[in-house]
Amino acid sequence: MSETSEGAKDFIRQIVSQDVDSGRTRTVVTRFPPEPNGYLHIGHAKSMCLNFGVAAEFGGRCHLRFDDTNPAREEAAFIDSIKDDVSWLGFDWGEHLYFASDNFEQLYLWAQHLIGEGKAYVDDLSADDIRAYRGTLTEAGRNSPHRGRSRDRNLDLFARMRAGEFADGERVLRARIDMASGNMNMRDPVLYRILHSPHPRTGRAWCIYPTYDFAHGQSDAIEGVTHSLCTLEFEDHRPLYDWFIDNLPVPSRPRQYEFSRLNLSHTVLSKRRLAQLVDEGHVAGWDDPRLPTIAGLRRRGYPPGAIRDFAARTGVTKSDHVAEMALLEHCARELLNKQAQRRMAVLNPLKVIIDNYPEGGTEDLDAVNNPEDASAGTRPVPFSREIYIERDDFMEEPPKKFFRLAPGREVRLRYAYFMTCRDVVKDGAGRVTALHCTYDPETRGGNAPDGRRVKATLHWVSAAHALEAEVRLYEPLFSQANPETGGDLASDLNPRSLTVLEGCRVEPSLKDLGPGETVQFERLGYFCLDAESRPGSPVFNRTVGLRDAWARMQAKSK
Ligand code: ATP
Ligand code: MG
Fold it and tell me: How far is the CA of 74 from the centre of ligand 1 (A)?
């Protein structure tokens, strides 16, 4: 049972619980209703966790319904990506896959029903005029001159709209409710518009399409949805949702409840903004690892469990709130720390020659796969006379607090030996190109029998055995916590959001890693093998580093 941090049920679960206890709801039915006009993002993950979560907790079911009422913006490819993402996150709609477009004929009949009851009419006003007639928040609207059309005339015109006699925008079907209503959504909302545009599923069968408002609640009713959970911007649409349900012979009575949407710092969560980033080429595609899309997070190496954990921790409320990117990263770190196998990799290699190690010699050392999980065992890591260490782990003239390798200083090579730096090799420009060191054969495994200590343990790879790899490091896509949403998104982009490192060296066991698998590179963070990898030339994405900004923030606030 997913609960808020106070240990109390969130308000949605309280409502569902009461409905079940009172017998009003027998089987809890929810739905996740994406519009196939883009990829899903982490905000959608929150909605899925709520809808699928509530259904599971109350022994009900959750439908996957595509809200495909606007063919101008929707594509079949998005349907596939959405299904993939929902499954990957761990949710199963079973046989309950639906499309609003499956209901087009029924919705048409219900629109006719409203006309028959005098509750809908065909309007010839242009979109601009409809807007002008609608009035404002402080001023009542005016009735359209076509509002008084007879029932038969309306039925005839509506049939001719369907038959394709009119051009896009020439006529609409509107509900006849109340042009003076305090709620703008009730001022004769549009139910159908003409759009001579093929639909990904119904092809050219229709040239009129229902609006979201007319399709959504009725689709809920057809499917037997009991609790229709949506975000707060639909709160003002609820009277209209109920008006349709009250005025149509629908087979069930769903109810809509609204919760606040998830916002996330340092990024944008709107398909329109995300599409803009993709279309303008600021990112490489919808699955760019910098994007908060499910596909991007997955490619970045986020485990689905971390995303679900994050969604649960952000709670279900009615108040606006921006979740910290640091919390999402914290959730990934916490899970990966338990799950991810440890490996060694050197991002910025510096060659080390161990002068007293036998030339041509090599040996396997035992490395622990996961200190958090003894059952993960150990693996052999080859060691030899020439190794690479991280360039940053050496300083020729170390300042006081630098405890890693320096001339004359001894350090530990993880799982291997103690090693002392003896000499520095430089090129003509004075840049260090290699180090000569010696090792102490008595310290195999990383401990000195005489008990002497060193202040640093370095990771390393054997030069002859290592694989060359490309590594991609990421920072937030936006430098601002709250990026410009007014229009000029590009000006807030973080120029350092992607750093590509070539010529990295990783231990040879990584050749067996599968695409999408995430490991910890010791001391460097968690890394996921990218699908763009080729045999022999792996590409890794850094999921998150090891430093935990969230944990530090929490500690400070205590
Ligand atoms: P966007 O504003 O990003 O384009 P949307 O609401 O138009 O999103 P839909 O495909 O219509 O996208 O959304 C499917 C479901 O996911 C809806 O029930 C919607 O309320 C929910 N949802 C979308 N964004 C969020 C969010 N940031 N937080 C929580 N739920 C969300
Ligand atoms: Mg929407």
Answer: 15
271-341+469-557 and 345-459: identical CATH topology: yes
Cα of 415 vs centre of ligand 1, distance in Å, is 49
Name which residue sits closest to atom 18 of ligand 1, judged by CA.
230
Between 206 and 486, the more confident residue is 206
271-341+469-557 topology per CATH: Ribosomal Protein L25; Chain P (2.40.240)
In the set 119, 142, 261, 351, the catalytic residue is: 261
Ligand 1 neighbourhood includes 31 CB (under 6 angstroms): no
Residue 401 annotated as catalytic? no
SS3 405: strand
Question: CATH topology for 27-259?
Answer: Rossmann fold (3.40.50)
With a 6 Å cutoff on the Cβ, whether 292 touches ligand 1 is no
Is the CB of residue 35 below 6 angstroms from any atom belonging to ligand 1?
Answer: yes
Whether residue 46 has its Cβ less than 6 Å from ligand 1: yes
* pLDDT tens, position by position, 339-395: 999 999 999 999 999 999 999 999 999 999 999 999 999 999 999 999 999 999 999
CA distance 182 to 139: 9
Parse the chain into domains and list their residue ranges: 27-259, 271-341+469-557, 345-459
For the record, the structure tokens of 114 come out as: 């409203």
In angstroms, rounded to a whole number, what is the distance separating the alpha carbons of residues 70 and 55? 28
Asked if 258 is an active-site residue, the reply is: no
Tens-digit pLDDT profile for residues 447-497: 999 999 999 999 999 999 999 999 999 999 999 888 866 668 888 899 999
CA distances from 479 to 264, 483, 490 (A): 13, 8, 11
* CATH-assigned architecture of domain 345-459: Beta Barrel (2.40)
Please name which of 234, 191, 284 lies closest in space to residue 33, comparing C-alpha atoms.
234
Q: How far apart are CA 47 and CA 34, in angstroms?
A: 10
Selecting among 65, 238, 271, 343, the annotated active-site residue is 271
